[in-house]
Structure formats: structure tokens, C-alpha cells
């Protein structure tokens, strides 16, 4: 891949676009472009949280395309420390990629990506990983990313009307309204069958107790690829102003044994979505599942008004989630209703390593589905 042409960025002879690193004066232009491309209200507090306050890089990890003084493209990244066994590596996740509608099909996506690859390949970043939609996935594969498999998300549908597509018209929405009492009855029946332990007490936090969650994570660290959970990760990753958060901690005889971070927002379509975004420890045994069952009892009761509750498949067993009324998006009926599935792709940045070494971290392949253990903590859902 062609190396960069210095910090001023690259300007091709046959156009007036400059592709360069983000500069402090670009923030308003990036936010304006975000509004045009994504049609969502995002302010300076969101931008500062996501990109300025990221604890794993000492710069704002964004590349922009500029023409005549206007930001017409942006290629932001989120940085993580990815852990495999006793090793960690800096990895970057492309997120919120934007090209102005009037400037598409001019190679800006590829040029901003190439600029980022060149920049990070000369530093200590090890690889990229991200979750493209079906429209952009082919573009990543052309640029050297490889497919690491589909990821499953589980949804507890508490109001089926929230899934009715607007194109279905009045009839579709009417069917969804009729199904709502059935869905709520189904969820209640599942909750009554809970086998949670009465010997576990649950405490609530209106914030994210970073030190406590990090200590719970360290009790049973998985051997698969995942973001390192440390206090600074929790202080940053779950501080998004887009979401409202509640943390639930399970204690047995006063000792914390598990935690769950739930966050809620209402989409531009008016759907209230809650995510059980973090569960720690990430994996566990029967005692851990008993604590999770009690956590789910309390967290589901606290989010009964949400239209949807989502959990990313990770260390929690599939049958546990199904028993609590969650449906996977890799099987009917959700596989029929959802427009796209979540796929992970990855690409190493080191070009001085052998093929096998470049595509692995501590022996774990970057492009094997079972290598990864992922929650919403790794996924850009903000």
C-alpha cells in the first residue's frame, strides 16, 4: 500500500481533495457531516467522549477528506487494548465512517482508509477490527480485511410493534399491536421460571463503578480475544452521553460475585432499546450463572418499559438467554425480520511479520469466529 506523503496529507493531482489527519479546528465540520450522513443529533460532548477522551491513544484518531475548506469525508477510529491470554495489543476499530452524498464514488473511503493504514502501520497498533454492515463489508474485503464470521445478538422483544417495519403500513402495525400482550405474557412466563438464588443480594449504581467491575473481570479472564477490562476502559467505554446507565452488582454474603451494566436510549424511530451491555466476569461456572440469573431478575424488572432488551452473544450460554425470553437473530423469527447480521472483519497492520504471526495474537487467529469473545463493550453501538 502506498505510504503517506507527510503530515500535510495527500492531494492527488487530478482533484482538489486533501486527505489528512484530524486537526482541532475540524470538530464542527465532522459533527455537521455526521448530521448530514447519519441524520442523528450528536454534540460536542459525544465527540469528546468517543474520540478525544479515548485512553488508548494520545491523539484524536480521525482522518478527514477536505475540499475547498469543507470537511466532506471522515474516517474515525476507536482504540482498544485487545487481550489474548497474558498479552495485549493496541487495535483500532473504524466507526462512524462518513462521506458527503455530493462527494461519493470518488474514492474517498479508500483514500482515507489507506491514509489510516499507513499512519498506524508505522506506530504500535497491531490490527484493525470492526463490524461493517452488508453494504460496506465488500469494500473492507477489497482493502485487505478478512471475514471473521457472523456474531449473534439476542433480543427480548417486549413490544413487537417496535419491530414492525414502517413499510408494512397500518396492517403490519395492527398485527404487532395485537401481538404485544402475547409477547409480554411470554416474557412474564419466562421470568416466573427463573431459577435464581435467594441467597444473592443485588445493589444498584447510577454510574459505572470502574474499579469494582475491573476486579470482577480479573477473577476469571477468558482466553479468547476481547477488550482488556481495566478501570480506565470502564470509565471511558460506558460514559457515552447517548445512553442512560444502571449498574447491578450481585453480592453473596457481602462479597461481589458478578456485575451487569444496563444502558438505555430511545432511537430516532421512537423505539426504546436497552442493552445488557456488560456482564462480568465475562465467563464463569454454575455459581456465576446463579448470580447472573438473579441479576437478570432485577435488571429485567428495572427495564420492563423498554421495547427491546439486547444482549450480545459472548460468554453467557445460549440456553440461559433463551430461558429468559431472549431470541437469537440467527434463527427465525428474528432472522427473517432483521435486515442484516453483525459480522466481524479484521486486518493486521504489521508488514514485517510472517503471514501466521501477522494474523494472530498470542496464538489466537484474528479471523476465526471462535477466537473472539465479544460483548457490546467491543462493538460500536453508540
Topology:
Blueprint (H helix, E strand, L loop, with lengths): L9 E2 L5 E5 L5 H12 L5 H9 L9 E6 L2 E15 L2 E8 L3 E2 L8 H14 L3 E6 L3 H9 L3 E6 L1 E5 L11 H24 L7 E6 L4 H9 L7 E2 L3 H7 L6 E9 L2 E12 L5 E9 L5 H17 L5 E5 L5 H6 L3 E2 L5 H4 L4 E7 L6 H4 L1 E2 L2 E2 L17
Parallel strand pairs: 5-7, 14-15
Antiparallel strand pairs: 1-2, 2-3, 3-4, 4-5, 4-6, 4-11, 7-17, 8-17, 9-15, 9-16, 10-12, 12-13, 13-14, 18-19
Write a brief caption for the model.
With 382 residues, this protein is of the alpha+beta class. Helices cover 30% and strands 29% of the residues.
| CATH topology-level fold name of the largest domain | Aminopeptidase
Number of helices: 11
The parts where pLDDT drops under 50 for at least 5 residues are 1-8, 166-179
**Class computed from helices, strands and strand pairing:** alpha+beta
Broad shape: globular
Number of domains: 2
* Radius of gyration computed on alpha carbons: 22 Å
Number of strands: 19
- CATH homologous superfamily of the largest domain - what is it? Gcn5-related N-acetyltransferase (GNAT)
Largest sheet: 10 strands, mixed
At the first level of CATH, the class of the largest domain is: Alpha Beta
Descriptors:
382 residues; alpha+beta; Aminopeptidase; 2 domains; ten-stranded mixed β-sheet; seven-stranded mixed β-sheet; 11 helices; disordered N terminus
3D structure, described in words:
- It is a single chain.
- This protein is an alpha+beta fold and 382 residues long.
- It has two domains: 10-149 and 344-371, 3-Layer(aba) Sandwich (Aminopeptidase), CATH 3.40.630; 153-328, Aminopeptidase.
- It contains eleven helices and 19 strands.
- It has helices spanning 27-38, 44-52, 108-121, 134-142, 169-192, 210-218, 231-237, 286-302, 318-323, 334-337, 355-358, and strands spanning 10-11, 17-21, 62-67, 70-84, 87-94, 98-99, 125-130, 146-151, 153-157, 200-205, 226-227, 244-252, 255-266, 272-280, 308-312, 327-328, 342-348, 360-361, 364-365.
- Strands 1, 2, 3, 4, 5, 6, 7, 8, 11 and 17 form a ten-stranded mixed sheet that branches. A seven-stranded mixed sheet has the order 10-12-13-14-15-9-16.
- Strand 13 (255-266) and strand 14 (272-280) form a beta hairpin.
- Helix 6 crosses helix 7 (231-237).
- It is globular, with a radius of gyration of 22 Å.
- 38% of the residues are buried.
Amino acid at each position: 500500500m502506498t505510504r503517506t506523503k507527510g503530515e500535510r496529507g495527500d492531494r492527488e493531482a487530478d482533484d482538489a481533495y486533501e486527505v489528512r489527519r484530524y486537526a482541532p479546528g475540524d470538530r464542527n465540520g465532522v459533527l455537521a457531516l455526521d448530521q448530514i450522513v447519519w441524520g442523528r443529533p450528536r454534540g460536542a460532548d459525544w465527540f469528546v467522549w468517543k474520540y478525544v477522551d479515548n485512553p488508548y491513544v494520545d491523539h484524536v484518531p480521525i482522518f478527514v477528506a477536505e475540499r475547498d475548506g469543507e470537511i466532506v469525508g471522515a474516517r474515525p477510529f476507536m482504540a482498544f487494548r485487545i487481550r489474548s491470554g497474558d498479552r495485549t495489543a493496541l487495535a483500532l476499530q473504524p466507526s462512524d465512517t462518513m462521506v458527503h452524498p455530493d462527494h461519493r464514488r470518488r474514492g474517498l473511503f479508500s483514500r482515507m482508509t489507506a491514509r489510516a493504514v499507513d499512519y498506524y502501520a508505522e506506530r504500535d497498533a497491531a490490527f484493525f477490527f470492526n463490524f461493517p454492515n452488508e453494504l460496506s463489508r465488500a469494500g473492507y474485503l477489497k482493502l485487505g480485511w478478512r471475514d471473521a464470521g457472523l456474531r449473534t445478538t439476542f433480543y427480548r422483544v417486549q413490544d413487537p410493534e417496535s419491530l414492525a417495519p414502517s413499510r408494512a403500513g397500518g396492517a403490519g402495525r395492527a398485527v404487532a399491536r395485537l401481538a404485544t400482550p402475547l409477547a409480554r405474557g411470554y416474557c412474564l412466563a419466562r421470568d416466573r421460571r427463573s431459577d435464581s438464588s435467594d441467597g444473592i443480594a443485588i445493589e444498584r449504581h447510577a454510574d459505572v463503578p470502574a474499579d469494582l467491575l475491573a476486579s470482577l473481570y480479573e477473577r476469571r479472564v477468558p482466553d479468547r480475544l476481547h477488550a482488556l477490562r481495566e478501570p480506565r476502559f470502564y470509565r471511558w467505554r460506558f460514559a457515552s452521553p447517548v445512553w442512560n446507565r444502571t449498574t447491578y452488582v450481585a453480592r453473596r454474603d457481602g462479597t461481589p460475585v458478578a456485575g451487569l451494566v444496563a444502558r438505555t436510549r430511545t432511537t430516532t424511530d421512537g423505539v426504546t432499546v436497552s442493552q445488557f451491555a456488560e456482564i462480568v466476569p465475562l465467563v464463569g461456572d454454575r455459581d456465576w450463572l446463579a448470580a447472573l440469573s438473579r441479576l437478570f431478575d432485577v435488571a429485567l424488572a428495572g427495564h420492563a418499559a423498554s421495547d427491546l432488551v439486547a444482549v450480545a452473544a459472548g460468554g453467557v450460554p445460549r440456553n440461559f438467554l433463551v430461558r429468559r425470553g431472549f431470541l437469537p437473530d440467527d434463527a427465525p423469527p428474528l432472522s427473517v425480520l432483521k435486515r442484516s447480521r453483525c459480522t466481524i472483519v479484521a486486518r493486521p497492520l504489521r508488514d514485517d511479520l510472517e503471514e501466521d504471526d501477522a494474523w494472530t495474537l498470542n496464538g489466537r487467529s484474528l479471523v476465526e469466529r471462535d477466537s473472539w469473545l465479544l460483548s457490546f463493550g467491543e462493538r460500536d453501538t453508540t
